[in-house]
Write a structure and sequence with these properties.
With 255 residues, the chain is an alpha+beta fold. A 7-stranded mixed sheet has the order 2-4-3-1-5-6-7, sandwiched between helices. α1 runs antiparallel to α2, α2 runs antiparallel to α3 and α6 runs antiparallel to α10. The chain is elongated.
């Protein structure tokens, strides 16, 4: 007797393959790949024993382990699961659909909003003043804002340079800009432990990568050692960015 195979079965297989692929990517980024493979092997063994061989005693025992293990996996991988759903929710097409059905207008940024940031980064780059500026996009950065000093000021080149001046008490933390205003400075950001990052990149770069991995924010880094400007977005770096490139990226609604 031949098994029937239709378009629904093909879609089912593709969806499962896609889900496993994204789970694999998340586990690889969080250095939990061995745990992922271990869980995958256990699930295959459980299905083989309970569904194909129909071993009642061993199948029942594994069913109990799976029911308890599911809760343990949710606790163990809570950060990865949160990141997975956050990635889905902040996808450009998903955000576009939400704006369409809710009537929300897409936030636009004029050259007057962007140029103070570009000029401040260019000036700090020439003077080799370290800086870390985080541009909020769709996801709110409330928890990170609370870790710093609230400012709520108009975006100004002079204010940005004063905050990151070497003797300023706020120069070591990150500055968060949202809704066309400098919201906070001296903020504590999550540090990425990605082993693929070049060793010459310092703590500012790792904090920029960390915030770009956990949120959809765009982070601008000015290196204190070299004066180079870098951008971290969606877990990837664009190094050695010129002032023209920075202006173009921000103008093209990158944040």
């Amino acid at each position: 007797m031949f098994l029937s195979f239709g378009i629904k079965d093909l879609i089912d297989i593709l969806l499962v393959a896609t889900l496993l692929y994204y789970a694999y990517r998340l586990m690889k980024e969080s250095r939990s790949l061995n745990i992922f493979f271990g869980v995958l092997i256990f699930i295959v063994f459980w299905l083989f024993v309970s569904q194909i061989l129909e071993m009642r005693l061993l199948g029942t025992l594994l069913d109990r382990i799976v029911s308890v293990g599911a809760i343990a996996l949710l606790i163990l991988f809570q950060d990865e699961i949160r990141k997975f759903f956050s990635t889905i929710g902040t996808h450009e097409r998903v955000r576009a659909a939400v704006r369409f059905f809710s009537g929300e207008q897409k936030q636009t940024h004029t050259r007057e909003d962007i140029m103070p940031i570009v000029m401040a980064c260019l000036s700090m780059s020439k003077q080799k003043v370290g800086a870390l500026i985080v541009m909020q996009r769709s996801l709110p950065l409330t928890d990170f804002v609370r870790s710093g000093e609230l400012i709520d000021a108009r975006i100004s080149q002079r204010l940005i340079e004063n905050i990151f001046f070497k003797n300023s008490p706020l120069h070591d933390g990150g500055m968060i800009i949202s809704h066309k205003r400098i919201t906070a400075a001296g903020c504590i950001l999550p540090v990425s432990h990605d082993l693929s990052l070049p060793k010459e990149l310092g703590l500012r770069h790792r904090a920029a990568m960390g915030i770009s991995q956990e949120t959809d924010a765009l982070a601008i880094v000015v290196s204190e050692e070299t004066g180079n400007i870098s951008i971290a977005f969606r877990g990837s770096f664009q190094l050695h960015v010129t002032a023209e490139d920075l202006e173009r990226i921000l103008t093209e609604d990158a944040f």
